[in-house]
Every structure is written in structure tokens, then in C-alpha cells.
Design goal:
This protein is of the alpha/beta class. Helices cover about 35% and strands about 15% of the residues. The chain contains 23 helices and 20 strands. The strands form four sheets. It has a six-stranded parallel β-sheet with strand order 3-2-4-5-7-6, with helices on both faces. It has a six-stranded parallel β-sheet with strand order 11-10-9-12-13-14, with helices on both faces. It has a six-stranded parallel β-sheet with strand order 16-15-17-18-20-19, with helices on both faces. Helix 23 links the parallel strand 19 and strand 20. The radius of gyration is 25 Å and the shape is globular.
């Protein structure tokens, strides 16, 4: 993340040296106010109740009461993803804190800057298995950038300020601040700004000049270069710098699932998304390249397929702010550690000083792939709607200024494939963790952060039933998100794998088994029970009108139950554990690939 996105800590007015004496709970609230936080998501409980009392008096903080702590965590993620600011979630001890764990893990995998503040039992009771005690610092240690346990009220301002700095600098990520109840109750002088001392935490933002020059030289010599763009470009706020560099090199661009929107889909150099369900041109461009310019990408297994067979003839320039990512999966010929916003400027300048490569033959080949393998879908044969058509129309009617948060599964891949993304922060999804239930609370958080944009949660009927209770939060707090349920009455992606690799044995993936004539639940009735507008669409000719009605309805959330075919599959597809070269055989009615080498 660029250094200019770090939350500034306002200094108090000049004057006397005296400091107000506050309770630890008051210090929590005041610290958040001084850090410029305006919105927090949370749920009170016994170990955090002290904080909720002064929170009630704050005129600067809007607290949004969620229905489940996981919803608070995902809402904080959605807030951060849509705005670039740090998201904040608050929960009590024990189960309140452990309910945040899934969202924390999700944020860690996707480098999302969130701060989670949890209450803890009295310090004198810690380790005694006290009521609602859980070692949340220990539990979250592997899935946070850092975790603080605060037992002294005087340490609260420093811990919270440090949490924001850690979450938002370097490679962004989640930070936990766990505060004992006695620390919340006790008083101490409130000193602001606190001294933030983080020994050993020195993110490198400026790349080494020799590495920049070496990278520019490799690019000038390449015949088949590809810009392999990951989510780090979005986190760094470097989309404009990426575009300038891409146009200077003339190289093809692929944007991973986490990077959709970092480079416009309408740009002629865009080949689309790579990976297991990527476009044929994007996948083969990586596979057959002679130079991978990896920008904020981590060589994830869903992109590489079998890593040992990935892009076998390619040299690698790997740029990342996290040195731990470089060389983790694929050795880099030119490793560059730095902030992408700065590195891309330096690379652009260095490349201007060398002779550009002739990649006309490479483009002729890639353009041939684009012609031969356009992204499309086959009509359904069971009389039900095509889910791809529904999602494509949501994107087209809403337009590129909308925000689209997706759950996980087939609908996630279709939303990544069939919506055109022209700007960063328009596409929100759970990429690394693959968390079902992400969409509705993430869309809620995004709408709070971007109230003037149309925000969609594109969800499956399986995902939706995990966190749909946050519709109550949206209705009560005037957060009018739009929810599109891609309802195929099944856990679609698992069902697809069962169809392809398990002889069509659909074990426990049909959500409505034995009740084909009864809707369990009836999503329209459920939406109405939550104070939302509920709509059901079963015919393709009704899709556009329903989407338009949803966009025109802003006095409450809208839920559209799109009843689609369960037989629709996500194509293309490279099976897990094989070479990406298999995608050469992908067709609209692709045969089931055999798993193996």
C-alpha cells in the first residue's frame, strides 16, 4: 500500500501539557475518533460493554449493530475494499471474538486492512477458563499481521494507533487489539499522539535501482512478455501507474481474480482473468510466455495449476511489497521489493531508456486465441435461466461505477468473467480463503463506505443462507444494498466437480432435495420478513426489469431470487493439479478432464 494512504494521526491543539484522564473504554473511542474513523461494525457483550457506553456518546463514530460477528468482520473488509480505508470491527470475548476468526483469516489471505477490537475477561481471570474466555490472541496469531493484548489503560492509545499503522502499511492485513475488561474500566492519562514504536517493522517501499534497471533490460529483450497483475496493484492504489507502464511496454495484461478492475477490461491489451477458470488467451499467454512480469501477485495455485509445469520457458520479474512472497512458489530472476505505486513509476522511467521489444508476432498469436476462444456460454437445456446471462445483465445495466461483491462458487467465477470491470475497488470477493457468506456483509460495508454507488451482493443460494441475517442490519440502518441470489438449488461449484470427477454422484450438494415443489426457504418471503423488497425472476425476459427496479429502489434493500439452471457449469476449466496447457482443449461443452499429471 502506498505510504500516502496511511491513516494520519491528528495532533491535539497546542496548549498546556496536561492530559485528560480517561477510562480505557473512553480511550478506545477517543483513539478511533482521532484516527479519523467514522464507521465501525460490531456487537456488544459482557467483556466489551465498557466500550459501548462511551461509544453511545460519540458524535463522530457511527456504530452499525450487526446480527453476527462474522458479519462485522466481512463488513469491515467490504468497507476497506471499496474505500481503501481501514475497516473496523468490534466484538466481545469468547464466542464473540471467535466468530470474527473467519473474517480475520479472510482478510489475511486477501491483504485487507482491518482492525478488530475485542474485549477480554479480567486479567486476573485469564487462564482460569473464565466465562466467555478464549485466547483470541493465540488463536489469531497465524492469521493476523500482529495481535495486541492490552492489560493497561495507558497502553490503549498506542496499541490502537499502532494497529492502524500496521494494518494499512506495507502489505495490508488484519490486526487484532484484545483489551481486558479491567483495562477498559481503569483510568489513565490520555496521551495523543502516542509514541508508536514498532521494532523491526520497516516495510520497504523504494526498490533498488539496479533491480529496476535489470527488469527494464529483461523486458526489452522479451519476445513474449506478459504483465501478470495481482491484487497488490489494487491495494497499492497503483491502477493509473499500471496503465501507463502497460501502454509503454505494449505487453498483454492478465488480471487475477483479486485484481479485476486494476486494468480496464475494455483496454485492447487486456486478456482477462487467468487461472482455473480464466480465459483461454490469459491462461495460455502466461503458460507460453518467455517473461512474466508479476506485479503484486503471489503465484497462487488457482493461477498456476501445477506449479512445476507453470510457464516453463519464462523468466520472472517479481514485484511485491512483501519479501516473503518472492521466491515462495517460483524463483525470480529479478526480485523487486517495494511499493507498486512507486516501483511502476521507476520501471516506466527505466523502460523509457531502453529499446522496446518487437512483440508483434506474440500479439498475432494472442489475437488469434481471442478470436478462436471468445468468452461465452451455452444456452440451458432444462428451460431454466442461464446464470451467466443474469450476471452479465446486472453488470451491463448497473454500469462500471457500481460495486459488485460476490460470494464463493460458480456465481463468483461468472461474476468475475461476465461483468466488465473498468476501475479498481469495484470488485469485492473472497479470493484466498474462499469464504461462503462473504457477499452480503461485504456489500453492506461497501455501501457504508460508498453510499452514492449502487452496491450489489451477487450470491449463491448456499452462500446467502450463511449470512443473510445482515439484511436486518441493512434494513434498520438504511443501507440499501441489492442482492442477486443465483438460485440453482445446489452448492453449484461442488456439484460441478462431482459431475466432472465423481461420475455425477451429487453427494449432499442439492439444497432442496425432496422438496422440488416447495421453496425452502422462500427467499422472497424471507426478504420481506427482513424489511426488504423481494422479487422472484424465473424467465429471461423478466431479468432486465427486475434489475432496473432494484436499481431504482433505494429506500430499502432489494433481494432478487433468480431461479437458474443447476446444470450450468463454469467454463473454461483447468482441473486442479495439472498443467495449464490443458486449457487448449477447453470448449463451451468441454469434456470432463481426468485429474492427474
Amino acid at each position: 500500500m502506498s505510504s500516502d494512504t496511511v491513516a494520519a494521526v491528528p495532533r491535539p491543539p497546542a496548549g498546556g501539557a496536561s492530559h485528560p484522564v480517561l477510562t480505557g473504554a473512553q480511550a478506545v473511542v477517543r483513539s478511533l475518533e482521532l484516527l479519523g474513523v467514522t464507521d465501525v461494525f460490531g456487537l456488544p457483550g459482557g467483556a466489551i460493554i465498557e466500550v459501548y457506553d462511551p461509544l453511545m456518546d460519540s458524535t463522530d463514530l457511527r456504530h452499525i449493530l450487526v446480527r453476527h460477528e462474522q458479519g462485522a468482520g466481512h463488513a469491515a473488509e467490504g468497507y476497506a475494499a471499496a474505500s481503501g480505508r481501514v475497516g473496523v470491527a468490534i466484538a466481545t470475548s469468547g464466542p464473540g471474538a471467535t466468530n470474527l476468526v473467519t473474517a480475520i483469516a479472510d482478510a489475511y489471505m486477501d491483504s485487507m486492512p482491518i482492525v478488530c477490537i475485542t474485549g477480554q475477561v479480567y486479567s486476573t481471570l485469564m487462564g482460569t477458563d473464565a466465562f466467555q474466555e478464549a485466547d483470541i490472541v493465540g488463536i489469531t496469531m497465524p492469521i493476523t499481521k500482529h495481535s495486541f493484548l492490552v492489560k493497561d489503560p495507558a497502553e490503549i492509545p498506542g496499541a490502537i494507533a499502532a494497529a492502524f499503522e500496521i494494518a494499512s502499511t506495507g502489505r495490508p492485513g488484519p490486526v487484532l487489539v484484545d483489551i481486558t475488561k479491567d483495562a477498559q474500566q481503569a483510568k489513565a492519562p490520555f496521551i495523543w499522539p502516542p509514541k508508536v514504536d514498532l521494532p523491526g517493522y520497516r516495510p520497504v517501499t523504494k526498490a533498488h535501482g539496479k533491480q529496476i534497471q535489470a527488469a527494464a533490460q529483461l523486458i526489452s529483450e522479451a519476445k513474449k512478455p506478459v504483465l501478470y497483475v495481482g491484487g497488490g496493484v489494487v491495494r497499492a492504489g497503483a491502477a493509473a501507474e499500471l496503465r501507463r507502464f502497460a501502454e509503454a511496454t505494449g505487453a498483454p495484461v492478465v488480471t487475477t481474480l483479486m485484481a479485476r478492475g486494476a486494468f480496464p477490461d475494455s483496454h485492447p491489451q487486456q486478456l482477462g482473468m487467468p487461472g482455473m477458470h480464466g480465459t483461454v488467451p490469459a491462461v495460455l499467454a502466461l503458460q507460453e510466455s518467455d517473461l512474466l512480469i508479476a506485479l503484486g501477485a503471489r503465484f497462487d495455485d488457482r493461477v498456476t495449476g501445477k506449479a512445476a509445469l507453470f510457464a516453463p520457458d519464462a523468466k520472472v520479474i517479481h514485484v511485491d511489497i512483501d519479501p516473503a512472497e518472492i521466491g515462495k512458489i517460483r524463483a525470480a530472476d529479478v526480485p523487486i521489493v517495494g511499493d507498486l505505486k512507486d516501483v511502476l513509476v521507476d520501471l516506466d522511467a527505466a523502460f523509457a531508456g531502453v529499446e522496446g521489444p518487437d512483440i508483434s508476432e506474440w500479439w498475432s498469436y494472442l489475437d488469434g486465441l481471442r478470436t478462436e476462444f471468445p468468452l461465452g456460454y451455452a444456452p440451458t437445456t432444462d428451460g431454466l435461466m442461464s446464470p451467466q446471462h443474469v450476471i452479465q445483465r446486472i453488470g451491463e445495466i448497473t454500469g462500471p461505477e457500481g460495486v459488485f461483491a460476490s460470494g464463493v462458487g460458480q456465481h463468483q467465477m461468472w461474476a468475475a468473467q461476465f461483468i466488465g470491470y473498468e476501475r479498481p475497488n469495484a470488485w469485492l470477493n473472497s479470493g484466498g480463503a474462499g469464504t461462503m457468506g462473504y457477499a452480503v456483509p461485504a456489500a453492506m460495508g461497501a455501501k457504508v463506505a460508498q453510499p452514492d454507488r449502487a452496491v450489489w451482493a451477487i450470491d449463491g443460494d448456499g452462500c446467502f443462507q450463511m449470512t443473510n441475517q445482515e439484511l436486518a442490519t441493512c434494513a434498520i440502518n438504511n443501507i440499501p444494498i441489492k442482492v442477486a441470489i443465483i438460485n440453482n438449488s445446489s452448492l453449484g461449484m461442488v456439484r460441478q466437480w462431482q459431475t466432472l470427477f465423481y461420475d455425477g454422484r451429487h453427494s449432499n450438494t442439492d439444497l432442496n432435495t425432496g422438496h422440488d415443489s416447495i421453496r425452502i426457504p422462500d427467499f422472497v418471503k424471507l426478504a420481506e420478513a427482513y424489511g426488504c423488497l423481494g422479487i422472484r425472476v424465473e424467465k429471461a425476459e423478466d431479468v432486465d426489469a427486475a434489475i432496473q427496479l432494484a436499481l431504482e429502489t433505494n429506500d430499502r434493500p432489494v433481494v432478487i431470487d433468480f431461479v437458474v439452471s443447476a446444470d450450468a457449469m463454469v467454463w473454461p476449466m483447468v482441473p486442479q493439479g495439472v498443467s495449464n496447457s490443458y486449457i487448449q482443449y477447453a470448449r463451451e461443452h468441454a469434456p470432463a478432464f481426468e485429474q492427474g499429471d
